[in-house]
Amino acid sequence: MGFTIDEANEELRKALAGPEDDVFYDVVAISDGLLRSGHSDEALTVWAERAARGIQARGIPPSKLVCYDTLDARLSPLIFSISDPELATIWPAWPLSNLRSVRLGEADIRWDAMPDSDWPSLHRVSVFGGPGVQNGLLPWLGRQELPQLRELAMPSVDASNAGFLALARSTFWTRLEHVNVGYNVWLGGPWPAMPRAHVLEIPNTHATIDDLRALMSVPLPQLEHLNITNNIFENAGFDVLVERPLPALTDLEIRACRFTDGYAWRGLSRAQWPSLRRLDLQDTLSDPLVLIAAAPVLRGLRRLEIGSCDLDDACAAVLASIEMPELAHLDLSYNQLTDKGIAQLAASTWPRLKYLDVSVNPIGDRGVAALTRMPWWNTLETIKLVRVELTDAGLATLAQAAPRNVRELSVGPREWYSQDAYDRLRAAVPAGTYL
After folding, report:
1. What ranges make up the beta strands (E) of 220-379?
2. Which is nearest to 145 in space by CA: 173, 164, 124, 126?
3. How many angstroms separate the CA atoms of 391 and 169, rounded?
4. What is the value of pTM for the model shown?
5. I need a surface site. Which of 17, 183, 268, 298 has the fewest CB within 10 A?
6. Residues 274-292, buried b or exposed e (16+ Cβ, 10 A)?
7. How big is the chain by its Cα radius of gyration, in Å?
8. Maximum distance among all alpha carbons in the chain?
9. What backbone torsions phi and psi does residue 397 show, to the nearest 5 degrees?
10. In Å, how far are 9, 60, 78, 81, 122 from 25, measured between CA atoms?
């Protein structure tokens, strides 16, 4: 069906008054009708600019401005999101002045020969590994002004240290709020301060303690999520972290940073992170649980991941003494807990616990029996008991005492049990369980 411009304007008025989820797609449908009506290129572009202003005035979130059909270039004001295979067919001939989100790196574009962009509304850049990264994309990106850019995602793109430094020296870097540059094995910084950061993910980047100091050198009042996993910060790095008040921090991932001798656990007593809800210290290896009960920061936790931390039965007793009334997710996998350590957990008060992983601990059948007597056992929805030295007797205990609301129960390996014991457990536990 075709439209006159006046008809398209009336349909646009109706579309802009509709539900937020429908606005953009309704506008695209109108534009398709205009394209079939033989209007001039100039008329189409003028109409698209009007439609784009209306969409922006509604404040439609960028995530809802994605069209899976490539728009005609004459309607380029309505292109809010694009990837570089399509970008290469439109830009720079058409300016894309309302572009909000762009995916770069996948197309074979010689970025070192491209002109500067004019994308004043660009909010998010996602970089993917591909020929573009090797053809000067990051230096090109680092030269752009991009006054509204707030999000940069480029994990695992095999970028060079020089490419990263070109970004870090850009005019937009200190304005970024969401950054994920993880799993790019650079030689490290220098990292400039990022005072506006809300989300910062730099796992496995060879960042150093000096880089961490640079990041923590300014107040970070809005930082909510920090992931510095698998960088060798060691104990001194933890000092740098806890010396900085982080009032908004809710989610901290610091796996495999080589904290030793209980250093991180003791340091938590000094942490000024009142909003912390998730702490992931998995794979900190030789960092047994000591003196952790004196850390007020743990009281508000909803998720604690301390797998592969050399936790033993004595550590279980300390863990059980910590008041964590909001705790819903606990990962204790790959430690040295026995049935005696599991029994220590009976003293815990975790009334909201729904997820428990004690896989790869030698707790045996007696440990499983002890778990079924825990005050929070019947609140669990996910239970992981893989390679915990269960026998058919342990499976029988689970069959008799599985929590009513369990959605996932993992045991194994399958060959450890008789078919009869396995079948009885399958019959006793609700559908959707994984064994």
Report:
1. 225-227, 251-253, 278-280, 303-305, 329-331, 355-357
2. 173
3. 59
4. 0.89
5. 17
6. eebbbbbbbbbeebbbeeb
7. 27
8. 80
9. -60, -45
10. 15, 12, 11, 13, 20
**What does each C-alpha distance from 138 to 111, 190, 388, 400 come to in angstroms?**
9, 16, 48, 59
Residue matched to tokens 């480029």: 154
The enclosing H or E element of 152 equals: strand 151-153
User: Which pair of tokens denotes residue 344?
Assistant: 């220590």
Q: Are 216 and 239 in contact (CB under 8 A)?
A: no
Distance of CA 273 to the CA centre of its chain: 19
Q: pLDDT tens digits, the chain, 435 residues: what are they?
A: 578 999 999 999 999 999 999 999 999 899 888 988 889 999 999 999 999 999 999 988 878 887 666 678 888 899 999 999 989 889 999 889 899 999 999 999 999 899 999 999 999 999 998 999 989 999 999 999 999 999 999 999 987 788 888 888 899 999 999 999 999 876 566 678 899 999 999 999 888 898 899 999 999 999 999 999 998 888 888 899 999 999 999 999 998 888 877 777 778 888 999 999 999 988 765 555 554 656 788 889 999 999 988 889 988 988 898 889 999 999 999 999 999 999 999 889 899 999 999 999 999 999 999 999 999 999 999 999 999 999 999 999 999 999 988 999 999 888 899 999 989 998 888 766 767
Q: Contact, 154 vs 180, CB < 8 A?
A: yes
Reduced to 3 states (helix: H, G, I; strand: E, B; else coil), residue 357 is: strand
Backbone angles phi, psi at 225, to 5 degrees: -130, 125
At 158, list the tokens: 């095999």
Element (H, E) at 341: helix 339-344
| Residues contacting residue 151 through CB under 8 Å, at least 6 positions apart | 123, 124, 125, 176, 177, 178, 179
Closest CA to 357 of 344, 342, 340, 369: 342
Which residues, in sequence order, are CB contacts of 195 under 8 Å at separation 6+? 174, 218, 219, 220
- Tokens representing 132 are 């573009």
| Gap between the Cα atoms of 272 and 256, Å rounded | 22
